[in-house]
Write the structure tokens for this entry.
Amino acid sequence: MADANAAVAVVTVSLVLLGLLSGLSLSWALLPVAVVVLIFVLASGLRGRDELAHLNVCVLVLGDIGRSPRMQYHALSLSRHGYSVTLIGFLGTKPHQDILEDDRIDILPISELMGLRVGPKIVRYVSKVIFQSFQLFYVLMKIEDQGYILMQNPPGLPAIAVAWVASRVRGNQFIIDWHNYGYTIMALTHGENHPIVRVAKWYEKLFGCFSDHNLCVTNAMREDLRKNWNIEATTLYDKPPSIFRETPLKLQHELFVRMSSVYSPFRPSSDVTKEHMELTAFTERNTQTGAVTRSAGRPALLISSTSWTEDEDFSILLQALQEYEKFVEEEDNLPSLVCVITGKGPQKEYYKKLIDSKEFQHVKICTPWLEAEDYPVLLGSADLGVCLHKSSSGLDLPMKVVDMFGCCLPVCAIHFQCLHELVKHEENGLIFKDSNELSQQLKLLFSDFPGDQGKLGIFRKNLKESGQRRWNENWDQNVLPLIKEHCD
């Protein structure tokens, strides 16, 4: 209990200091002291530790569950090995159907609280953190006894401290799965020297050390955590689950038909008509025999996915497509392009306006949001993937590329520090540094289209022959032993 008391004291003092640094009045800044009362009121009502608690795991993400694939994969892997999972997070986007249908996984939604709606921006932000702390702590204390709390970071403010306190009070093991550093993401908007960024870095570094175990997404991050944060972590690379694979032609056609009803780039040219044929821009199905074939002269399908945030500059892709447009006009052997950019995020409307301002003749762009079940089908139907993710810390890897590789889809990816841990230049894709280099790569890769003897075909062949490990195998090797050692 002494450990729990110390945890309460540290978190309470930290929240008070955060409030004072943000300019809150003393009375507002002292509000977190009420956390102490809440802790002991709830703790005093706890039952004795459940004998089967080691079979329960809480998977926590202070974000949209549907847009947190890695945490969904954790939940499914735990369920597969007989653990009951409480999956906590925001319900903004529909989770994967496998999550919804799994009897061992219980989704416990929490609200994305907004804090005060008046006053300086910093005050509103701090009030949001405080309100979220109360809500999250209450939820963690009220759920049935757990053997583990497995939490995604970022976002870690206030989740790390709150989850740590709850784990100390309830006797859980606490794991942080480091996807990136939250303070580096904040620095993209506010700058590295902004007071709130400095406080966030201090907070993340302090409370990150209190976890019982740590996972991370790259060896570069593991080394950085060890060297600069004194945190020992296990590298758990993102790996594609089995749903990411090459899509059979019949399923491709079915998806294209559905998408053509909403998005014009998937529709066939208005001057193309064929009797007894169901047509899309890429495929055609004989309505009498059911046979599906690829359309002659079809465009190449380029796909990118994004959260539409500051760490992805899509003006690079738009400029490259503008250059590619010129290449098509100058050369007869290059195909037209359909570029699909999937995802949701704060900068989507800004880029949609930029896209609408372009007057392309040989390039068509659409920005759909795909259900979790359709996204891997589209990836497995595409000809090339493009990744514009530039890690805010330089230490994480884009999961979108992992998924593309699972579908044997070659990529062009923008360069950053540890990208070589995933993308092997001239082996499974190409790495570029600017729009000019990307446009030249598009020209090179599509010069043989739709043939499979050029570089694009070679990259796809290399991916097929690589024997890449899937998520389940990777998880079983790196995470399951940890869970069994401390829970069973």
Remarks:
- Confidence is low (pLDDT under 50) at residues 43-48.
- The first helix runs from residue 2 to 21.
- DSSP finds 19 helices and 16 strands in the chain.
